[in-house]
Design goal:
Layout lengths: L1 E11 L5 E11 L3 E5 L6 H8 L7 E6 L2 E2 L5 H6 L1 E5 L10 H5 L1 H5 L4 H14 L4 H4 L9 H13 L5 E5 L7 H18 L2 E5 L3 H7 L2 E6 L3 E6 L1 H6 L1
Parallel strand pairs: 3-8, 3-9, 6-7, 7-8
Antiparallel strand pairs: 1-2, 1-4, 4-5, 9-10
Helix pairs in contact: 5-7
The chain binds adenosine-5'-diphosphate (2 copies).
């Protein structure tokens, strides 16, 4: 089935800049769709319209077939994990408390939350006994991104939105994070929409790649092998 559908979506910012002119695009359930294209072509805008951090000017967005264009944005965000480049962990909260953010909002009981936090830290390769009580400033860049991924996955959202998630990590650490992430998301079956300017990353991680040009124009939508050949 279709996880997310953009139908003739357009975004004009208040200053008049047309970030996305008329985009129609579908993300299939359980796939990782990578959005690539030059800086300023509308990738982040597109991603952020999916969870309404950016309000589309016109067009429709459907989530699992449901029209969410005008749905409650807070409810929508709880159904989608979101990971960005500088992950924005809460600095005065421990790793465990950061990962527990959404479960606490959803009022899970303490046992379930604690068990989930430990499971997720294991999943992203951080030993809970070592990391749960640390604060973000006590972590490396790569470890912070891992915590960001764990936090985004805490409530097992069907959809994960990622905007340059590994961009701030050094090249060696990035490779490792990418392959671990590939394993995690296959294991969980999460649908992922990944924004990157790094074609290599898109090819390594993507089931399909959407190539955008300025104004959010969809130039190509293909599997990695076809994109490499083009
Ligand atoms: P990308 O993620 O591909 O780099 P963006 O979606 O960030 O592209 O930006 C697309 C276009 O929209 C760019 O021309 C950018 O300058 C513009 N833009 C992005 N955010 C805003 C904003 N908040 N206000 C006005 N223009 C914006
Ligand atoms: P508090 O830590 O005071 O209970 P928070 O609401 O800040 O309150 O923490 C949210 C949740 O984070 C806790 O209920 C717990 O489930 C989880 N948590 C906190 N510390 C740990 C830890 N060391 N290991 C695993 N989970 C933890």
């Amino acid at each position: 089935g279709t996880a997310i559908a953009f139908e003739h979506v357009r975004k004009v910012y208040v200053d008049g800049s047309v970030a996305v002119e008329d985009l129609s695009l579908e993300v299939r359930e359980h796939e990782l769709l990578a959005l690539v294209g030059p800086s300023g072509c509308g990738k982040s805008t597109t991603l952020r319209m999916a969870n309404r951090l950016v309000e589309p000017t016109s067009g429709r967005i459907l989530l699992g077939g449901e029209d969410v264009t005008h749905a409650d944005a807070v409810g929508l965000r709880r159904r989608m994990g979101y990971v960005i480049q500088h992950v924005g962990l809460f600095p005065h909260r421990t790793v465990a408390q950061n990962v527990a953010t959404v479960p606490v909002l959803l009022r899970w009981d303490r046992r379930r939350t604690t068990a989930r936090v430990e499971e997720l830290l294991d999943l992203v390769g951080l030993d809970p006994a070592v990391y749960a009580r640390r604060y973000p400033h006590e972590l490396s860049g790569g470890e912070r991104q891992r915590v960001g991924v764990a936090r985004a996955l805490a409530s097992d959202p069907p959809v994960l939105l990622m905007d340059e998630p590994f961009g701030a990590v050094d090249p060696v650490g990035r490779r490792r994070l990418q392959s671990e992430f590939a394993r995690i998301r296959r294991e969980l079956g999460t649908t992922v929409m990944l924004v990157t300017h790094d074609v290599d990353e898109a090819v390594r991680l993507g089931d399909r790649i959407a190539v955008l040009s300025k104004g959010g124009h969809l130039e190509q939508l293909a599997d990695p092998v076809q994109v490499l050949a083009a």
